[in-house]
């Protein structure tokens, strides 16, 4: 992963050098924009963000970007809201798109529309993929701008496919095919010990998000756009959870119990799993570190393909000065320019968030070299918003806990989702009055 980040920093630096031969002198008193970014303090990804900030400052000497690395997404949200309540909010933060309602409820952010209201600004806002804007807009306003966004995709090991007698160039495209392939790819010794699993689908960290990777292809949406109602126990959701549970309980092609989000890519690279589901943001990591040829595919279809979107948005915080908010918007516009969005996607594996980024020469060449990079983009036409509601942390915890109970065998899928819906109704009832 370190090589990925260093390559990202180099790509950003090269991008800056292309047009900065005669940068103007620094302004005497630049406006300071504090940027909360969700990576561990001192982590190598800070080199990428620092390089971006330096490039931007060369082009915009009237602005100073002060990046603060605030930990995980969850830690970043807590720190940003604590600072907001304490009267010293960040100017700008990259937080989960699903934090939208939480940030609005805390009166922590300002609508982007109020800062970018010209016809040109409106055209710019309309230029992002609609699937990403589902978690960026509500109530007729735009609150966040997509930055490091993703979908869930399936990776498969072509070498192990060939060894199992499967076409190494063809991934399973339906639920039934996935079961068939996974069973053929699972290796068990005479003592019953599994040395290679057919598939691993993680169930920690973002359990609800992975679950949407099954409900979406089953034509089932888990919440309304206002964030006031969930539909966890609908028949399509129960059917999706039953499919997930059966991969281990019935078909014995996936480990039982919970599977760690963070170790799933490692298990894939160590060939302990022939197929995995994970974020497309792992593409560059796997390209850099996998020792075997692999493929990338859309998630298998039940009624049609589909995945929830995921990842982080830019948010501009309230209780900051008009000058800071204006400077923050300048940085957001700069970071989402087509060429830069293309470079960010190439360097990290995240999906370039605008169609015009895919029209750049850099991205066209990248797609010729790495066709798999287009899978997540093509999946956007089937994508839905990631689960997001008012009081989102409690609602998603209720769902996550019950999903894991079903996967661990302590509840049936029906009972788990009925309990999750009951708890969600209790949490959200005040928002429906």
UniProtKB/TrEMBL annotation:
SUPFAM superfamilies: Periplasmic binding protein-like II. Its main location: periplasm. InterPro entries: Bact_solute-bd_prot1, SBP. Gene3D superfamilies: Periplasmic binding protein-like II. It holds the Pfam family SBP_bac_8. Residues 1-27 form the signal peptide. This is Carbohydrate ABC transporter substrate-binding protein, CUT1 family. It comes from Noviherbaspirillum suwonense.
């Amino acid at each position: 992963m370190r090589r990925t980040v260093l390559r990202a920093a180099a790509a950003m630096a090269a991008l800056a050098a292309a047009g900065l031969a005669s940068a103007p002198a620094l302004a005497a008193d630049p406006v300071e924009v504090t940027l909360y970014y969700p990576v561990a303090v001192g982590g190598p990804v800070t080199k990428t963000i620092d390089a971006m900030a330096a490039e931007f400052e060369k082009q915009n000497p009237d602005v100073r970007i002060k990046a603060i690395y605030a930990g995980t997404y969850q830690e970043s949200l807590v720190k940003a809201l604590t600072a907001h309540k304490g009267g010293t909010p960040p100017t700008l933060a990259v937080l989960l798109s699903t934090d939208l309602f939480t940030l609005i409820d805390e009166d922590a952010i300002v609508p982007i529309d109020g800062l970018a209201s010209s016809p040109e600004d409106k055209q710019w806002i309309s230029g992002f993929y609609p699937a990403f804007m589902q978690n960026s807009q509500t109530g007729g306003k735009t609150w966040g701008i997509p930055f490091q966004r993703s979908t869930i995709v399936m990776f498969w090991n072509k070498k192990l496919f060939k060894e199992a007698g499967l076409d190494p160039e063809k991934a399973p495209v339906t639920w039934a095919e996935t079961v068939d392939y996974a069973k053929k790819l699972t290796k068990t010794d005479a003592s019953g010990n599994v040395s290679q699993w057919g598939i691993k689908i993680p169930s920690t960290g973002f359990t609800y998000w992975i679950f949407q990777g099954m409900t979406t292809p089953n034509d089932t949406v888990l919440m309304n756009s206002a964030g006031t109602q969930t539909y966890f126990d609908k028949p399509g959701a129960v059917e999706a959870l039953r499919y997930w549970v059966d991969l281990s309980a019935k078909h014995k092609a996936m480990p039982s119990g919970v599977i760690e989000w963070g170790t799933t890519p490692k298990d894939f690279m160590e060939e302990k799993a022939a197929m995995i589901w994970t974020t497309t943001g792992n593409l560059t990591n796997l390209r850099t570190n996998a020792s075997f040829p692999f493929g990338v595919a859309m998630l298998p279809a039940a009624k049609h393909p589909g995945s929830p979107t995921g990842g982080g948005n830019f948010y501009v915080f309230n209780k900051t000065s008009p000058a800071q908010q204006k400077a923050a918007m300048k940085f957001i516009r700069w970071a989402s320019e087509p060429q830069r969005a293309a470079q960010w996607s190439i360097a990290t594996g995240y999906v370039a968030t605008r169609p015009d980024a895919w029209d750049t020469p850099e991205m066209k060449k990248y797609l010729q070299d790495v066709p798999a990079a287009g899978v997540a983009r093509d999946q956007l036409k089937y994508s839905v918003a990631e689960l997001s509601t008012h009081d989102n942390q409690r609602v998603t915890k209720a769902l996550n806990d019950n999903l894991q109970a079903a996967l661990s065998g302590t509840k049936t899928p029906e009972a788990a989702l009925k309990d999750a819906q009951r708890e969600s109704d209790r949490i959200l009832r005040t928002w429906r009055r």
